[in-house]
Known about the structure:
By secondary structure, the protein is an alpha/beta fold. The protein contains 13 helices and 13 strands.
Amino acid sequence: MHLKIKIGRRRLEFGRRKKNNDASGFSGEIMLPQTLTAQEYRQNMQFVAGMRARDDSVVPQSCLCFLPYCCNLEAGGIKTIFLMLEALQKNCGTKLYINIYPPLATRDREKDYEAAIRKKFPSLRFSLVQPEEAGYVDIAVCTLWITAFELAKFNRCKQKYYLVQDYEALFYPSGSVAALVDETYKFGFYGITNSTRLAEIYKGFSSSPVFRYYPGVDKSLYYPPAAKNFSKEQYSLIFYGRPSNQRNCFELISLICRRIKDALKDKIEIISVGEDYQPKDYRLDKIVCNKGRVCSMQKLAELYRRCDIGISFITTPTFSYQHLEYMASGLCLVTNEQPGIADFVKDGENAVVCPMIVSVIAERIIELVNNPAQMEFLSRNAVQTVRQFDWDNCGKSVCGFIGNKKTI
């Protein structure tokens, strides 16, 4: 089976339609959930009804987390999961069990992945197990939607939780896979989400209690320059450019870049990061300087600090970690208007928030470049805003939700 899973606001791909005549011919997104039997489904719904009726206070001394494989442990969504697990361990002394699903092809690959996790998160103490090896645990948590089917089968716990970092049905065209994603929200697990809008969506499907957390941002890496000059001859704009991923709105950003470069000429430098591509292939030659994939987080943070404006669009009801990283680095954030960012991004207060209209966004950026005082005002407020985004506080708040009785 072809297996290529990326977390957060990135395309997910479990399998390709097979050319040979096997039992189904369908991709993993369709076939993997079919391992949940009707009896297991009914047992889960009975479990959840009992869990919510009891509404116990649980101190999670043990936790089983169902986790997808992700080749990039720096990806925002996967990193969030591990930081949450670290918080459980730090605040509650939780013994952690991790199950990788879908399972890796060989034991050697599993060992390699375990070693990579331990290297990236050295303070995290965990055992990589099959679900039956975890025994009875206080809580069990699913993450990516496909792992919710495994959690539905697992009833050897006191409570079940669903960490929802995006409305994942929107990762797919309307159809079978999107319907399966929506179905996981009806399993009835307690919800943990990163935006008020996501909490509303999840609660609308499940009627379960949901907690909205504020994430953290690494301020030792992302911070503003000591002395930033807002009045200068040329300003630098940076954006996340990935032509291969439609969800990052590369087409619209390209049109915006052409307009602002045409209007501002040498007064604006436009930088793209995120993917290796040739600007000339998208009529961006002499308009955009593409840095491609910047593998060093330190170098990426340094690049942010030398820029003035950061464009970050997201079309699903959550935020991007780039929103936080841009703001923490002292950039003036330009983003699209949507309910997922409304918890902390405010137009005219700490960012430029626009309708998704090319002419309007280009006009707002041009106005910003010609108004250094406004740029400075938004930049300073952005830095102030993200001071509240701290992983330690985030972890404590999530642990508080898990440890207390729930209210609907």
